[in-house]
Amino acid sequence: MDQRCIDTLRALSIDQVQKANAGQLGTPIGTAPTVYTLWQRFMPCTRSRA
Questions:
Q1: Spatial separation of the C-alpha atoms in residues 44 and 50, rounded to whole Å
Q2: What own/partner pairs with CB < 8 Å and gap ≥ 24 does 38-41 have?
Q3: Residues 6+ apart with CB under 8 A from 14
Q4: Long-range contacts of 1-4 (CB under 8 A, 24+ apart)
């Protein structure tokens, strides 16, 4: 499941870079695992905090 989420983040990030017609694809591809880990472990979003 984690790998699927990371791959989805990568795909969405690539789409955004291409839509903006600016930026570098290497950054979202390379940082997706880090972003996912930070979000899951250190910045959880629960309904009580939302």
A1: 10
A2: 40/2
A3: 25, 28, 29
A4: 2/36, 2/40
Model confidence over 1-50: pLDDT tens digits?
A: 889 999 999 999 989 888 888 878 888 889 999 999 998 888 877 666 55
Identity at 49, one-letter amino acid code: R
Backbone angles phi, psi at 27, to 5 degrees: -65, -55
The pTM assigned to this predicted structure is 0.71
Q: In 3D, which of 36, 26, 46, 30 has the Cα closest to residue 5?
A: 36
Q: Which amino acid is at 5?
A: C
Q: What is the pLDDT of residue 48?
A: 67
